[in-house]
Amino acid sequence: MPPARSSNKNKYIAAVLLLLLISMSAYAYLMPTKAPAIETGTILVLPVQLATNSTDSQWNPYAAMDVLINQLNVGVSYPLLQTEDIINIISLISNDHLSQAVDIKQLMAVSGAGLVIESRITSANNQYQLAFTLHQQHHTEAGVVNASSIEQAILATSSLITQQHNPQHNPQHNKTATQYHSRYSTPLLFSAMTQLQLGDTKAAEQHLSKLIHSTPDNLVAMRLLASIQLQQHQYEQLNTTLIAAIDQATHQQDERELARLRLLLAQSYTETDRIEQALGVLTIAKTNAAKVKDWLTLGYISQLAGMINQRIGRNDKAREQFKKAIEYHQMMNYPIGQTQALNELAELEVIEFNYPQAYRYINRSYEQVAHRGLDHLEKSTFKIMTKIENKMQHR
Question: Any idea of the CA torsion for 163, 141, 146, 118, to the nearest 10 degrees?
Fold first, then answer.
């Protein structure tokens, strides 16, 4: 009776596999089974909505989003927007920075994202459910993951999305959730970022100073405090903050933070007429950003380098840097950065009386503004366009 024994053996194996799946406390469901290729653009993960009874203070919408971003591995062709970049983009189109009630189409247009990941975590009976939606320009998918913890739900979701959109990725190379602890998990930092979004800089500064005093290795908090100090022209305090932050980032070997901290330092040097020092710092910052393929920061580094070179009369060098900025932003399909750099290029050509070239650049810029809904850049772009048109009429 071999067939009967084989049948029993198959049933036994199936039962064991089922028990293993249950013991992992995680399962996932996704439709359709084969996802279409992600369209050109970055991947944008929205803040994770948390409607749970968890008492774990490390989880908030930004921390959960940050862990999900870090765990995704969809390949070099689809760069991931980082947590604060996403928060800044959302703030441009929504008054409620923590809400997911944003217009997804508008968000994709403004950010240039090819994929937007929307998610919500709920809990019941010591189990957590993460429901997510993957938005593409002409396609939407939905999925659900159940797990025994928020951490496991995020890890399982990132693994599922990675396998859907990067089938060549070896699951054995997946990071474990415990390898990455989000710097955004601190309640004080979350409060400070919320206050910044609400425009209460003083309250944010107090929260950040308190956090840095108790946790001097939190680079996000140090950089945000430095940004406030730069905005308020507190150059002496800013210098102290940045020196400490750069030392800490060097110790942690955090190239991304080193690039962004040095960009702030270069801005400070520029505002205090230490031009050559600013250019030297930007050169180092470029190396830091390139190591982690932080194209967005590379774009802004090149843009600032262009502005500095233009300021000291090195127009050819400035033009080269503005064009590099556009190239980096194009790698992220990021229309905001492209528009800003095109505007700078147009202004540079006006200075050199190259009005037809200036008009070509400003037309490209205005197309981005109009087609992408970049309302916050419309006034400044139109002002440059009007100036160029007037110059051309009075030649």
Answer: 100
What is the residue whose two structure tokens read 């425009």? 199
What is the C-alpha radius of gyration for the chain, rounded to an integer number of angstroms?
A: 24
CA 143/CA 135 separation, integer angstroms? 12
Task: Say how far apart CA 293 and CA 217 lie, in whole Å.
Answer: 23
- Entry pTM: 0.86
Record the tokens describing residue 168, joined without a space: 């060549």
Tell me the pLDDT tens digit for each residue of 102-111.
889 999 999 9
Sequence-ordered list of residues with C-beta below 8 angstroms from that of 285, at least 6 positions apart, any chain: 258, 259, 262, 263, 266, 297, 301
Backbone angles phi, psi at 133, to 5 degrees: -130, 130
Report the mean per-residue pLDDT for the chain.
Answer: 87
Sign of CA dihedral 153, 105, 383, 392: positive
Give the list of residues 6+ apart from residue 345 with CB closer than 8 angstroms, or none. Answer: 319, 322, 323, 326, 358, 361
Under DSSP, the state recorded for 80 is B
